[in-house]
Batch of 2 targets.
Target 1
Amino acid sequence: MSGPIQFTCPLPLAVKDRIVLGHGSGGRLSAELLRDVFLPFFHSPILNRLDDQAVFEFRGARLAFTTDSFVVKPLFFRGGDIGSLAVYGTVNDLAMGGASPLYLSAGFILEEGLEIETLRRVAESMGRAADDIPVEIVTGDTKVVEKGSGDGVFINTTGIGLVPEGVRLSPALVRPGDLVLLSGPIGDHGIAILAEREGIQFSTDLASDSAPLHGLVAAMLAVSLDVRAMRDPTRGGLSSALNEIASRAGVGITIEESAIPVREEVRGACEMLGLDPLYVANEGKLVAFVAPHAAQSVLAAMRRHPQGHDATLIGAVTDTHPELVLLRTPFGTTRIVDMLPGDQLPRIC
Amino acid sequence: MKYLDEYRDPALARRLVAEIRRSATRPWVLMEICGGQTHTLVKYGIEELIGERVELVHGPGCPVCVTPLEILDKAIAIASIPEVIFVSYGDMLRVPGSRSDLFRVKAGGGDVRIAYSPMDALRLARENPQRPVVFFAVGFETTAPANAMAVWQARREGLRNFSMLVSHVLVPPAIRLLLDSSANRVQGFIAPGHVCTVMGYEEYEELAARYKVPFVVGGFEPLDLLEAILLLVRQLEEGRAQVENQYVRSVNRTGNQAARQRMMEVFEVVDRNWRGIGPIAQSGYRLRPEYAAFDAEKVFGVEAISAPEPPECISALVLQGLKKPVDCPMFGTRCTPATPMGAPMVSSEGACAVYYQYRRHTAPAGAQA
């Protein structure tokens, strides 16, 4: 054969005409959907901040307001269920704005044929979760859709919370030199759910980390108000949370691979399925950006709290590679930690 | 973690890196065949570590990337048929065909399911006797035994609603194509450890003898690859062209006999199209005539679907080591994993995608996203 081999390649699919599952993954597709479909029509400077919660002044008080929908399958899983998750998820979104929760609403979309007993278990779990926090579920709604139009139970919760005097958390406040703290091992929720789903059979004792974070946040803010921003790395995992902050604050973030705690079971499952724990969902962890002088005391406060017992310093904010998250490997090399373009899919071999 | 941490030990890695740097007295160009190996090399930045003298070229061993357009179009056509349950490995769902992809078929109401094993598809066929269940059997020699087993089992059970869309490709014919090219720069190969687990490495001994090129069967962890690189550099420095086996914990010379036997019972070798490369003689598998009842192309009458691939990207030059992914003017701008212009940007194991994911911060200015 003479000359280089002539290879050819296909044109891309430019058309983006339908919702695909990746739009719900919390990665780049979700961000595009928000930017291209919703923001042009919803004219709100508060929404445009794209925080996990809206924080605004109302008659002298600073209120946090947020909403979240829960479509988890299976409804009951090791370490939690859709009911408690729906309470904690919204409480955590409020907490990431520094707010303590005041009231919740609960909306239910139920599929025809759902057993009442199942719904009762979900409601009982929600009630218990709300009592423990404590937060009151003060209003709600129920709709039923035809069999096949839903998947048992979908829940939406909306929450309102009060931001204490002097607390101001926003990605916009993050600046080079800030340190990055993580409250504990990552990936537990996503892998626990995956393990219970049909078709993926491997044995593990791993439980979801589903838990409320408002107590941990309060403990952190009690030692220093120089916590600049917080995120709970839910869908899209730690990588999405860090990338969101990097892009919102226009800063670079460098993290140390060896400093990020990952349980053996999670690592094992990820190795087997070809997943990266950095992209796997958490439901009871937070990542905090803290001014350098306050980092040690905040870290100590986290470790004293049961939800932050395994907290670690994982990295720092820099001005050298804006809007890029880099990870230093134990080999001394660095690589990019990107936002996922869509769903994280298991590799085939 | 046992059996993983040992192969990711930074101190041992430093020792191997130093040894590679010491051993290489001249520039050498090596190719790793398998996309899994590319992924590890780029993820850990191993190219950065081993120095300028040893250049790594990323081979065509990403099954997702090389699955031809026409097979994707066939998959999309079958999956779009109401009643069909179409079962696939997850990363095939995102790969664009001519006009659509399996994710879109799913979004449009098609019953497309992700599985981790063809046995899951077999189970679905048993549970849904009224519905045709089709498994998308792609991959190299690695995934072929399990797929062969599923078809064999289906025939034994008399499962009439199970079939398979087969697009298996084989590694040695692709290496032969590269080595026959006058533009070839590759002087030594890391042979794919998982493929050799099934097939053994006798085929590579023939290649080494014929082309006077060394091969080292390598694993997938950073230390596996560093050791394989060191063994190749030593062979090249000493003027040897042999097959050595670094991945001894998994590979022996004759491979997995039981698996090979089942594959040969079920599959036969045919010419195959490779996406981004074109037709390669005797480079793939299809079902043998006695398994025609399980051949989804025949069952659903999609054999005639063909799809020309318009010339667009420089994957040819990338896969021959004549260009790096970051040398492409479209890299990271018009061509990203979300909008792939060509095969190597499609899967997480494709050379361009893995560069984009982990190393685009090292790209020259102007080529960055």
Target 2
Amino acid sequence: MEDFFQWFRWLYDETGINLTILYDSFDRERMVRGFFNTIYLSLICLALSVVIGLVGAWLQGSPLKWTRRIVQGYIQLFRNTPPLVQMYFFFFALGSLMPRMENEYGIMEPVLSNWHWAIISLSFFAGAFNVEIFRSGIEAVPRSTVEAAESLGYTRLKTYIYVVLPLAFRVCLPALNNNLVNLVKTTTLAYAIAVPEMLYVANQIWSDSVNVPEMMTFLLLAYVVLVGLLVHVMNRWERAMRLPGYGV
Amino acid sequence: MIHTALKRFGCAVATAAVLATGTVTGASADVLDKVMERGTLVVGVKADYKPYGFLNPDGDIVGIEPDLAQDVADTLGVELELVPVVASNRMQFLDQGKIDLMIATMTDRPDRRKVVNILNPDYYSSGTNIIARKSAEFDEWEDLEGVPVCGIQGAFYNRKTQREFGAKIVGFTGTSEALNALQQGRCAAFVYDDSFLASRLQEAEWSEYNMPLQTIDDAPWGLAVKHGEERFARFMSGMVVKWHVDGRIVELEKEYGIKPTPFTQRMHELFSGFVPKEEG
């Protein structure tokens, strides 16, 4: 294995293509960590944003006026502000107002870390779009189907879970795919609040070794692979959920 | 020995500078021609690095490096345009021609010389240190083992601080973010250039903090131009020699309220010794 890595050192000497992330163990380790951090951040935010979308879409159909208004307010706030601005706002403005706890170095540190804020900000950002995406699916479910469920004695929540959502899901999956792909790409913004994901690590490596083109290419390919995987999984899911005769 | 070498070098540079400016209407259009033609010199400087390059309350970039850039523009008789740069993009900006000249607190290192033309002689020097709360009581670099330390993304000493001393680097995009994070308690210390940290510690806001460690990696800073721009490079080397001769940089350090570094004083003494004073 080590020979394989050292071949890239030779490649650098011979051609000037400097892939330190392969032959330098320090760079390699931090890039591997960065890669997994990106996956970790993406998975958590994907899951949370879908949950937020489902809950939000349900609350949006609430008979209570104020519940609907609050959901609408949340969507407006998060959909109309750039995610980078949200990230800075959460971490530097809200973060400093959090209660503080003494950490192991004897410093009074605010309770939520940069990781927490990145997860909160990204999940709510993508969640706001997901609410609207789920609403589009829910509105596509025929009123008569809902009435049929009601006449069978389903409550609003039960109708939502057993009748409306399964149908709505199938309608809105393509739009949901798009938004989730966007979410994975948006995780790069967490570099601004020092979450060590791939862009953060790549930035430090290309500053140390002045190998910008190589690292840029690597980043691009890494995201193509990551997002490709996500799209593949989502497409399989879409196929598995297909109902003959329903939708396209 | 060094003195004679410098003397010879200085004379060569001075001659070269004169030649360079004398032949502005040369054959091929290089960056110097372009600057003269458009009447504007575009210089990349830092905008978050008090007092070397920072924003004043009006939003203009001011500081020691913008003043040096102004000297260059005045010497050429053109207007000056300042472009704010950061560590991770300054060499790319120069390479892409977005800026003609870079005066951006850049440490002169061999691998960077491959990418851009770092001029001789160097104009400044600084090393790496940290600021931390006085209560943290760091005595040596090894005390940073496992400690979260704020830094700037792209700074070269992040690697060393992380690799050799075991600190956990928390890198931000600019100094204001990193300093804010330090004040918030996100990290125990902030690792950066000692020159910058020293100027910050003079402010009342930072009275609870100190610079407790021995400065490491004291290294010179270089101006840079794009590779291949030989005429402009010779001219700029001449400018740097002139600043050392005049003691211009020492003067600027005093003007911006920092203690003159040993490097600038030594350069001023070395260079001022051999250039004959203008008669009457």
